[in-house]
Specification:
- By secondary structure, the chain is mainly β.
- It has 2 helices and 28 strands.
- The chain has 3 domains: about 40-55 and about 65-165, no CATH class; about 185-265, Immunoglobulins (Immunoglobulin-like), CATH 2.60.40.10; about 270-410, no CATH class.
- Helices cover about 15% and strands about 40% of the residues.
- The strands form 7 sheets. Strands 7, 8, 10, 18, 20, 21, 25 and 28 form an 8-stranded antiparallel sheet that branches.
- The radius of gyration is 31 Å and the shape is flat.
Length: about 425
């Protein structure tokens, strides 16, 4: 009986197969380990994120903020209605977050970021809604402090939204930055240093607080101005910026100064029928309500109504085509529409850029471009009750030429 060993070729093939199996096993082990490590990191990141957000949110919900001010690099102090305060500190270099209750002198919560994590660029933005009645929140501040990790994707930082009344709360201008301490005190403006105001309303300044070097807060009351002198006034000329100067004096010497710039806006712009395109230039970044009325075909067949809200950027241009009353050869077929691109009323590129339209009495409908995203869209047919474009009471259908109105609803900074 012949006995044969492995040939050289068989040995090589066998060795190669073994190595392939080993490599595959190593890859599986590595993959499982990576998934396990990633899951562990994400769990810890999410846990820290939840605690950071909860600690701040709990305090903000328990107490209403009266003022906020910088207290150094990466440091904010919040003063509440009961004159207690808290300090939020972000140390980017050491990766430490702290939220301190100053009244008790103890740290409510402090945390060091997970190894491999770091704070990103801190973003603070404000939005103020115009023409909100007194006693109602008219502003919202968004504080975003990202936390990123080198091994996993996603943001595991602080993301807070706080609503407030800018007429009684000094919070709008807070930023993270270095700040020199004014030994004589600091003026903290209610509202914002850059405000917008409707030209149809009388101006009433939100006011200010004064915080001394010890953190004590002075609220102006009657003849007590807390040592602040105010110069300048705000008129009602549309598209005009007025300046107010606030100077804090101590022993006759100015120790702090703040400037408030107030841009007076014509918050509503109306567009009547002119048989030609009309341009609207955005004066302020914010949320706008667009209202369109189509033109009537005749006294019996009236125009429809469409409205919607859209975010617009400062200085961008939009084009309106307001419909003409009538049944033959009417301008824009009686419809009233808003477009991103200008041009003749029937220009192909222009008509393809329609973003909102109200049909006239002829009843034609138009395809719309998605170049702008509208919210809260309302469409009312010509047989139902709709806002009166030229009056206060409602009407059933629009009986005349078309009409358009664009109103600034809220300002975004």
């Amino acid at each position: 009986m012949n006995k044969k060993g492995f040939t050289v070729v068989e040995l090589i093939v066998s060795f190669a197969l073994v190595m392939m199996v080993v490599i595959m096993l190593l890859q599986i082990v590595t993959m499982v380990k990576t998934l396990y490590v990633d899951a562990g990191i994400k769990t810890e990141l999410l846990s820290k994120q939840a605690i950071m957000n909860r600690k701040i949110s709990e305090q903000f919900h328990l107490k209403s903020i009266k003022a906020a001010m910088r207290c150094g690099r990466g440091c904010l102090t919040f003063i509440y209605e009961d004159d207690s305060s808290s300090t939020l500190t972000i140390d980017k270099e050491k990766g430490i977050f702290s939220f301190i209750n100053n009244d008790h002198g103890s740290i409510n919560y402090t945390i060091k970021l997970l190894s491999g994590s770091q704070f990103g660029n801190i973003e603070i933005s404000n939005e103020t809604v115009l023409n909100v009645s007194d006693g109602k929140d008219n502003s919202m501040i968004h504080i975003k402090i990202p936390v990123k990790h080198s091994l996993v994707e996603g943001d595991y930082g602080i993301n807070l939204v706080y609503q407030y009344d800018s007429r009684i709360t000094a919070i709008s201008d807070i930023v993270y930055d270095d700040q020199n301490t004014n030994e004589g005190g600091t003026i903290v403006l209610k509202g914002s240093s850059d405000m917008t105001h409707s030209s149809v309303l009388p101006y009433q300044d939100p006011g200010y607080y004064v915080i001394d070097s010890k953190g004590d807060l002075c609220t102006p009351n009657g003849s007590n101005t807390c040592g602040v002198e105010i110069t300048g006034e705000v008129g009602n000329n549309p598209n005009t910026t007025y300046t107010l100067n606030f100077k804090l004096k101590k022993d006759g010497v100015v120790v702090d100064e703040k400037i408030r710039r107030v841009l007076v806006l014509n918050t509503s712009t109306n567009f009547d029928y002119t048989k030609e395109r009309q341009m609207f230039t955005v004066s302020q970044k914010g949320l706008y309500k667009v209202e369109l009325w189509g033109a009537a075909k005749d006294d019996q067949t009236k125009g429809s109504y469409t409205s919607g809200e859209v975010q617009l950027e400062k200085s961008e241009n939009l084009y309106l085509y307001v419909g003409e009353k009538g049944s033959e050869n009417t301008f824009n077929q009686g419809a009233t529409d808003l477009r991103v691109k200008g041009g003749d009323v029937n220009d192909t590129n222009s008509t393809a850029s329609r973003i909102l339209a109200a049909s006239g009495g002829l009843g034609d409908s138009f395809p719309l471009s998605n170049a702008k995203e509208f919210n809260n869209i309302t469409s009312i047919s010509n047989t139902k009750s709709m806002p009166n474009p030229r009056g206060s009471s409602n009407i059933t259908g629009n009986p005349g030429h078309g009409f358009a109105r664009i109103t600034l609803v809220s300002v975004t900074s």
